[in-house]
Input
Amino acid sequence: MGTDVHKFYGLELKAIRGRLGLSVRQVESASRAIARKLNDRRYFVSVSRLSELENRGLIPGVYKLFALSVVYNMPLLEMLALLGLDVHKRQDYSECIQSDRTRPVDLLGAPETLEVPLRFDPSFSARSTALLNRVIQEWGRIPFEIIHKKMEFSRFFFVQIGEADNLMYPLLRAGSIVKAERLRRAVSNTGWQTEYDRPLYVVQTVEGYRCCWCLVDGKDLVLVPHPLSKKCQERYRMVREVQILGQVIGVYTPLVATEDGPTPPAQPRS
Output
């Protein structure tokens, strides 16, 4: 089956080039220009290599695949789809890797479309608390790409709190999704009145990701847990052992454990 897919891939590459009216020499010349601009010969697709790709169904490396996607003006994901590799199905296999640690949320495997509210009751006001299922008058599906652009991933990122990460319990429960801003990396040691005002940060240590309060102590960054979590502070050398990825600006946290969801940690009796 794999061989058939590869042959189809080669034929499709040839058909794409034909529809664009490009000769093998033109593809070679364009890829050479890309390789020169990037100062990396791995992007260069010679005439002989292109012939092997089209006629023998050989699979190009990632650099040559990128060059071809540029020359053919095709999204790289579409080039991969020709090989039968659908990145949108990555989440179908996420259960194969069990992890209870805090980790960035992967949206590359998100569905192509999302169901979202399209029209609200005209009387709805964001100033008042309301049941959303009663004020939404119409639902519809829009391309995920639109949502993706609005999320500004160059500025924001999302992290899921692992089931074994109780560092900020009960403020942040296992399974919570936090939104963080990359530009906010300066740690404030003072300036808040309550624990809800105190900035939370997403950091990457030599042992993994953490989401917690932080304190700068000389050349060290101290990771401060919630006092009710019964966890100890962690101390890391700045830059060498820990990196501040951003400050949390939004949180979705489950208040009640679902049947399949994470359960809060058992608290010791006082």
